[in-house]
Design goal:
The protein is built from 16 helices and eight strands. By secondary structure, it is of the alpha/beta class. The protein has one domain: TIM Barrel (Alpha-Beta Barrel). An eight-stranded parallel beta sheet has the order 1-2-3-4-5-6-7-8. Strand 3, helix 7 and strand 4 form a beta-alpha-beta unit. 45% of the residues are buried.
Length: 336
């Protein structure tokens, strides 16, 4: 067995949790092809390892080409989630935080409750999942009050996330709604510091009260923002392959995830939109291992972070961490 295959086996065996994955970006290609072989005859070109999106608009065009025609019913959401868990089970996933897009309510005419119920019913009974709805910076184009009230009143929705182009300023409705969601017992997230600079990370921390940052990588450009994130106990849910393919990081060897960790910000590794990027969770760990020459000790720390920042009972966290520590000890002994 080669050193690379030993590492892959180690990474795949680690108990892991995932905190940043879009359900619409996780479409089940095999099922899509069987359902409509004429429309879904060629997979996204972005599956290629060396593929790079020229603009974020190019990324969105693939969403409109593949995702929008597929995600048209609660049943399709359920199928997508079922297939997602089949893949993640093979990677020893124990816990997941995933999101569906609020804008889908306007595309499909479905209600947030319909989609959320279908998703939660598709989660295997032996898996822990927390469901978020991602709300666009610009909000809903119509019936906004109805949609926001329904979100707060849907128990299957565990939290909210801020999606969409980060260059849009936060509007008063989002500041008010994040406060209302917190009061209603929802967990708060926000995408920030991916497409825009570190000021977006500061903004969602200070104005939305968010401590779970999706991406956050450009905080590296402002030490004061990194200090703020570390001081409030924020965690960054990072997607290295996505960051590279969208050219938010020029090369994996230049990814700032290790520097963010060194600054005291716990980081987790995640797939973002695995259907679009053609990646698995193991691929993310392997990309960081090979591109940044990351030690197995640090890779195991990413796995630990994924549990320490999870919405799980302390006993479940400790059990997973003990298993990670045991597997790391075995792996390191085999390397000697």
């Amino acid at each position: 067995m080669t050193r690379n295959s030993e590492l892959q086996d180690f990474l795949k065996s680690l108990p892991k949790a995932e905190h940043h994955i879009h359900i619409e970006g996780s479409c089940p290609w095999d099922i899509m092809g069987r359902t409509d072989p004429q429309q879904f005859d060629t997979p996204p070109p972005s599956w290629a390892d060396d593929y790079r999106f020229e603009t974020f608009d190019d990324f969105e065009q693939l969403i409109f080409k593949y995702v929008v025609p597929w995600m048209i019913s609660p049943e399709r959401y359920a199928q997508t989630v079922e297939e997602l868990f089949k893949v993640r089970r093979e990677e020893n996933l124990r816990y997941i935080e995933f999101s569906f897009a609020g804008i889908a309510l306007e595309f499909t005419g479905l209600s947030a409750r319909e989609i959320a119920q279908a998703i939660k019913e598709a989660v295997p009974q032996d898996m822990e999942a927390r469901l978020y709805i991602g709300l666009h910076h610009a909000g809903f184009s119509s019936n906004q009050d109805h949609h926001l009230t329904e979100i707060l009143d849907t128990p299957q929705i565990d939290g909210i996330d801020l999606h969409g182009p980060e260059e849009f300023p936060l509007e008063d409705w989002s500041k008010d709604f994040w406060k209302a969601a917190k009061s209603a017992g929802k967990t708060l997230k926000a995408h920030a510091g991916e497409l825009s600079g570190p000021s977006a990370v500061r903004e969602v921390i200070e104005d939305l009260g968010v401590t779970k940052i999706q991406h956050g990588i450009r905080a590296i450009e402002d030490p004061s923002v990194m200090d703020l994130a570390a001081q409030i106990g924020a965690s960054f849910d990072i997607c290295p392959i996505s960051n590279v393919k969208l050219q938010n990081v020029p090369d994996i060897s230049l990814h700032p995830v290790l520097k963010l960790e060194d600054a005291g910000i716990p980081c987790t590794l995640n797939t973002d939109d695995p259907f679009i990027f053609g990646n698995t969770l193991t691929d993310e760990y392997l990309a960081v291992a090979e591109g940044l020459h990351t030690s197995p000790i640090q890779l195991a720390q990413f796995a630990r972070n994924s549990f320490t920042t999870a919405d799980l009972p302390e006993s479940s966290k400790l059990e997973a961490i003990a298993e990670i520590d045991s597997l790391l000890e075995i792996h390191l002994a085999a390397m000697d």
